[in-house]
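Quick question, first post here. What does this chain look like in 3D?
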Amino acid sequence: MKYRLITPLLLAACISANSLQAAEAPKALDKQTSWGLYVDSTEAAAMKQKLGDKMLLVDVRDPVEIMFTGFSDVVDINIPFKTADRSAWHKKKPVFNMKLNTHFEQDLAAALQARGLSKDAPIAIMCRSGGTRGAPATKLLENKGYKNVYVVTDGFEGGSLKEGDKKNWRLKNGWKNSGLPWSYKLNKEKMYIEPASQTVTNNDIKSENIDKAAAERAKFLSMLNHANPMPNYMPVLMKNAKNLALSAEQTEKLKSWVAANNEKTANVVKKIVAIENSLALASMNGADKPTLMKKYSEMADLRMKIAASKTDCRDNIRKILSTEQWNKLVKLKQSAGTQHASL
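> Answer (accepted):
Ran it through. Tokens below.
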């Protein structure tokens, strides 16, 4: 049985063999946060022992996942960042899709308020391994007034072994592998229990999916325009397909271009945003000029790729459309104004 009594003596014994200095920042840019605050599981336990009720330690895993992998009663509360959506299958992996908890920030704010804590209080976010959900959950709290938000870099289960008889087993670091208290017995008072929802019809689901897709599309176009303000013709073209009298063959060619290039472009845009965040963080942390200029140069190279991609897209559209259709598209684009992202 993997249960240990939670006592100061036990925590002190677990912590004494480890340095209490903060964990190193993750190398991956998408796992870094604007606070730059990182601790491993042992350090998180030490913080909780020292600060007690003056901090909030949050487990952001799916409560069903916790039920089968264990929980620590040192944790203050379970607020999932994402939960398994059994109505949707993942597009690339052989697993269920994960749906975002759209009330995550509100749930966390309520947890602070219930304990008499403000947004100045230290908050530590822990997921399974530290990066897949812990860092993104932390990023949801950026620019919302929170002052000290830590990512538990090795999470509850830790990382997977890369070789040996137990290859792929999660036995590397993590709360469970550090001798810290945990159990398969869950504390109901701390677990996230989803409120009973009203009956949802198929039309409700379809409408919600359409709204989500539209929101994601608008966000991408805004990021794309920010990465490079050159005109983006494809959205207004597809929106006005009937007005432009596109043939089935033209439509198919345009869709093929989108399918072949959109994901590549999206990945470049994400890299640009990540470098921008990293650049700002490095500047605030006192990085020297050569380091900052190197990051800026990397970002400039990626922006050139976006410019080249947009130009290739324009040239491809001109090949597919007739001269009359192209001229009409340009007028539609001009009439929409300069807010390319809204198209």
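The chain is about 45% helix and 10% strand.
The first strand starts at residue 38 and ends at 39.
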